[in-house]
Amino acid sequence: MNMALTKKQNQVYLYIKEYFDKEGYAPTQKEIKEHFGLKSFGSVNKYMHYLQEAGKIEIDWNARRGIKLLEEITAPPAMVTTHQAQFSEVPLLGDVAAGNPIEAIENPSEHTMVPNHMVAKPGRYFALNVQGDSMINDGIFEGDILVCRAQENANQGQTVIAVVDNEATVKNFYKKKNSIELHPANDRLSPFIITGQNDFRIAGIVVGLLRSYE
């Protein structure tokens, strides 16, 4: 797909190209974020989405330096194939604690790009930045971005975004006879026990995760 780039999008592309020409490999998302003074990895993801849509780059989202310049491909033209990026924009609402609950922050003016397969089911989706280490046994680390589907209920053992006394946390959900338990995925931590004394609700369930490796 041939799409025109804005001035800022072209600056990001030129930075990636110049970095590749100098180092022999692409910059990380963290390096792009810091070079342009971007506020979040969500902003970096948005630029990566635009550049991929424009046919300038391809991205392996699971690799630390997964950006590939399409112009660097040396195979004959008949052998080169490009794939249109399939991403959706969802609100990046702020921070969620993988540890002790922290105040829920909403900033619907900020968004991030997520693969369409993560948001394929009908519903309202949002993303949250992870703080803390209580879910490390489930592969959720500080600095990750969680992709969530908004809903008010969950199955046993499902990873949820819970709001407890107006503070948000990510935990595994278990409903007991007389209480609700929010279990961390960290052997050194104990579950949160939710009783009738707490203001509790489920804000959504975790359906995907985005990660930068630096």
UniProtKB/TrEMBL annotation:
<dbReference type="InterPro" id="IPR006199">
    <property type="entry name" value="LexA_DNA-bd_dom"/>
</dbReference>
<protein>
    <recommendedName>
        <fullName>LexA repressor</fullName>
        <ecNumber>3.4.21.88</ecNumber>
    </recommendedName>
</protein>
<comment type="function">
    <text>Represses a number of genes involved in the response to DNA damage (SOS response), including recA and lexA. In the presence of single-stranded DNA, RecA interacts with LexA causing an autocatalytic cleavage which disrupts the DNA-binding part of LexA, leading to derepression of the SOS regulon and eventually DNA repair.</text>
</comment>
<dbReference type="InterPro" id="IPR036388">
    <property type="entry name" value="WH-like_DNA-bd_sf"/>
</dbReference>
<keyword id="KW-0805">Transcription regulation</keyword>
<dbReference type="InterPro" id="IPR036286">
    <property type="entry name" value="LexA/Signal_pep-like_sf"/>
</dbReference>
<dbReference type="InterPro" id="IPR006197">
    <property type="entry name" value="Peptidase_S24_LexA"/>
</dbReference>
<dbReference type="InterPro" id="IPR050077">
    <property type="entry name" value="LexA_repressor"/>
</dbReference>
<keyword id="KW-0378">Hydrolase</keyword>
<dbReference type="Pfam" id="PF01726">
    <property type="entry name" value="LexA_DNA_bind"/>
</dbReference>
<dbReference type="GO" id="GO:0004252">
    <property type="term" value="F:serine-type endopeptidase activity"/>
</dbReference>
<dbReference type="InterPro" id="IPR015927">
    <property type="entry name" value="Peptidase_S24_S26A/B/C"/>
</dbReference>
<keyword id="KW-0068">Autocatalytic cleavage</keyword>
<dbReference type="InterPro" id="IPR039418">
    <property type="entry name" value="LexA-like"/>
</dbReference>
<keyword id="KW-0235">DNA replication</keyword>
<dbReference type="InterPro" id="IPR006200">
    <property type="entry name" value="LexA"/>
</dbReference>
<keyword id="KW-0742">SOS response</keyword>
<comment type="similarity">
    <text>Belongs to the peptidase S24 family.</text>
</comment>
<feature type="active site" description="For autocatalytic cleavage activity">
    <location>
        <position position="171"/>
    </location>
</feature>
<keyword id="KW-0227">DNA damage</keyword>
<keyword id="KW-0804">Transcription</keyword>
<keyword id="KW-0238">DNA-binding</keyword>
<comment type="subunit">
    <text>Homodimer.</text>
</comment>
<keyword id="KW-0234">DNA repair</keyword>
<feature type="site" description="Cleavage; by autolysis">
    <location>
        <begin position="98"/>
        <end position="99"/>
    </location>
</feature>
<dbReference type="InterPro" id="IPR036390">
    <property type="entry name" value="WH_DNA-bd_sf"/>
</dbReference>
<feature type="domain" description="Peptidase S24/S26A/S26B/S26C">
    <location>
        <begin position="91"/>
        <end position="207"/>
    </location>
</feature>
<keyword id="KW-0678">Repressor</keyword>
<feature type="DNA-binding region" description="H-T-H motif">
    <location>
        <begin position="29"/>
        <end position="49"/>
    </location>
</feature>
<feature type="active site" description="For autocatalytic cleavage activity">
    <location>
        <position position="134"/>
    </location>
</feature>
<dbReference type="Pfam" id="PF00717">
    <property type="entry name" value="Peptidase_S24"/>
</dbReference>
<feature type="domain" description="LexA repressor DNA-binding">
    <location>
        <begin position="4"/>
        <end position="66"/>
    </location>
</feature>
